[in-house]
Every structure is written in structure tokens, then in C-alpha cells.
Amino acid sequence: MQVTFKIFRSTLKSWEKLCQDASAFASALPEGRVISISHSGDHSDGVVVLWYDKG
Question: In sequence order, which ranges of the chain are alpha helices (DSSP H)?
Fold first, then answer.
């Protein structure tokens, strides 16, 4: 297993758009590769981190 991540971060995009971007990326990965998706927010700064097996 080769674990890696992708960060989706924005102060301008809505939470809905950040989550749509993360889910589109996750959906394009081969089945079973997504390990975890987490999020954090601080005022207008939103972050979604997707951890996955790069294979």
C-alpha cells in the first residue's frame, strides 16, 4: 500500500463546491482505494483532505 493524500482548500468556494470537488476525485479512484476523508473549517477557510491508496 502506498498512502497519499489530496487537499481541497478554499476561502472563496462554498462548502458544497469543496465537497463536490473531493467527491468527484474520490469517485474517479479505483474501487477500494479511498481510506478516509476529513474536513476542517476556520472562519471562511475550508479544507477537505482525502487520504487514499495510490497503489
Answer: 15-28
**How far is residue 4's CA from residue 14's CA, in Å, rounded to a whole number?**
25
Q: How far apart are the first and last CA of the chain?
A: 6
Q: What pLDDT is attached to residue 12?
A: 92
DSSP 29-44: SPTT-EEEEEEEEETT
| Cell triple for 54 | 495510490
Residues 48 and 19 sit within 8 Å (Cβ to Cβ): yes
Give the strand pairing for 45-53 and 34-42. antiparallel
Q: Give the three cell numbers for residue 27.
A: 469517485
pLDDT tens track for 34-53: 999 999 999 889 999 999 99
